[in-house]
Amino acid sequence: MKKIAVILSGCGNRDGSELQESLSLMLAIDRRGWQYQCFAPEGYFEVVPHVDVVDDEEEEGTLVDTEQRDIFVESARIARGNLLPLEQYSPNDYDALALPGGMGAARNLSTFAFDGPRMTVVDSVADAILETYRAKKPVVAMCIAPMVLAKVLGRYEVRLTLGPDDNQASEVARGFGAQVQACGPTDVCVDSEHKVLTTPAYMAASRISEIFAGAENMVAALEQMLGE
After folding, report:
1. Which of 50, 60, 134, 156 has its CA 20 to 30 A from that of 67?
2. What is the pLDDT, as a whole number, of residue 62?
3. Mean pLDDT per segment of 10 residues, for the chain of length 228 residues?
4. pLDDT at site 50
5. Burial 189-199 (b: 16+ CB within 10 A, else e)
6. Element containing residue 144 per DSSP (H, E)
7. What is the pLDDT of residue 165?
8. Contacts of 79 (CB under 8 A, 6+ apart)
9. What's the rounded Cα separation, in Å, for the pair 50 and 190?
10. Nearest one of 186, 77, 192 to 142, comparing CA atoms
11. What torsion do the CA atoms of 225, 226, 227, 228 make, to the nearest 10 degrees?
């Protein structure tokens, strides 16, 4: 039975792991009779409210909030409490490493949302990705999470997707050395040489059915890669 490690970054598309992407990924794994184990780094993040409001000038905006929450505690909401600290992850115990999307990848796992091309990646996240890569095991990612892979693995010229090829993220990823491939909502970019698989999810999709199809296609490609 294959075992997949999943790195979460909180709970919510604006400041954590995107729920629809996370659950679609887990479901695609489970449908194959595989197991998944969720991990998350420890630390605090600034909450971004998920309710849009209309102000006095009738312009749409987002509620301002300065609350801080714990990444690990929030991630446990998605994992139903079955969550381990990322420091406990070892590629020796798993067949692949997976990162669903959501802005938590750009705010909590890395600083891409704040620093763009000057971004850094949380040490435990970078270590997990590098250790998996060096163990010659697959790394898969969805939505904006491939940006984290670009920063960590760009030096190896890995190929990945961030959706349409006309966004700032693609330009930054290329600056790190990654090869960026344009993909549609349910497409999968497969880098067989480096064992990196990515799908655009909400970087290109507009419907939850496309999110599941993309996750299913990505895990199907992972299944083929692991069977080789």
Report:
1. 60
2. 54
3. 97 92 98 98 80 56 67 95 97 98 95 96 98 98 98 98 91 97 97 98 97 98 92
4. 74
5. bbbeebbbbbb
6. none
7. 80
8. 8, 38, 40
9. 33
10. 186
11. 60
149's tokens? 């892979």
Question: C-alpha angle 183/178/195, rounded to 5°?
Answer: 75
* pLDDT reported for residue 43: 83
pLDDT at 64: 52
Query: 101: burial class by Cβ within 10 Å (0-12, 13-18, 19+)?
Result: buried
- The model's pTM: 0.92
As given in the structure block, the two tokens for residue 186 are: 């349910």
Spatial neighbors of 147 by CB under 8 A, at least 6 apart, are 105, 106, 110, 112, 119, 162, 169, 172, 173
Write the single-letter amino acid at 4. I
Task: Supply the pLDDT for residue 35.
Answer: 98
Structural domains in the chain plus CATH codes: 3-227 (3.40.50.880)
Give dist(CA 106, CA 115) in Å, integer.
10
Q: Please, what's the b/e burial string for 18-41 (b: 16 or more CB within 10 A of its CB; e: otherwise)?
A: bbbbbbbbbebbeeeebebbbbbb
Q: What are the two backbone dihedrals, phi and then psi, of residue 54, each rounded to the nearest 5 degrees?
A: -110, 125
